[in-house]
Design brief:
Number of domains: 2
Number of helices: 7
Helix content: 55-70%
Mean pLDDT: 82
Strand content: under 5%
Radius of gyration: 19 Å
Low-confidence stretches: 122-126
Oligomer: single chain
């Protein structure tokens, strides 16, 4: 689909794009419903997943993107610390990256060094384990 954004070595106009997109007739309702009413105060993991996706994209673009796409350490710290709520899945995210040996990448290492050892609220899985032990 992205190849259709270019026609005769030029980027197509928005009007042409809107007409072309109708041909693809992709149902994006599931994607839209995921983002609908996304909020840091909801009792779901959508906010957490978006924050982790953001960190993953930053690492990818820092590794393989153009120089103008590079995200400085200060901005990565803002993603982690200045968002309305810190992801409850950071500890799990860190574990997944290490387990899959992605921590060998210098940009992933940089992000991992900024993630606190324990999150502010703890892992939701830890909370579930504690409540299961009480039963």
């Amino acid at each position: 689909m992205t190849a259709s954004f270019i026609h005769m070595d030029d980027v197509i106009s928005f009007d042409v794009y809107t007409e072309e997109i109708k041909r693809y007739n992709k149902d994006i309702s599931q994607i839209c419903s995921f983002f609908d009413s996304l909020s840091p105060i909801e009792d779901r993991f959508r906010w957490d997943l978006i924050q982790l996706l953001h960190l993953t994209l930053v690492a990818f673009l820092n590794s393989f993107g153009y120089d103008f796409q590079y995200t400085e350490k200060e901005n990565i710290e803002k993603i982690l610390n200045d968002s309305p709520r810190q992801s409850r899945l950071l500890a799990n995210y860190k574990s997944v990256l290490v387990r899959n040996k992605l921590n060998k990448n210098e940009h992933i290492k940089s992000i991992l060094s900024l993630i606190p050892t324990t999150s502010k609220k703890g892992s939701p899985w830890e909370e579930q384990e504690r409540s299961a032990e009480k039963v």
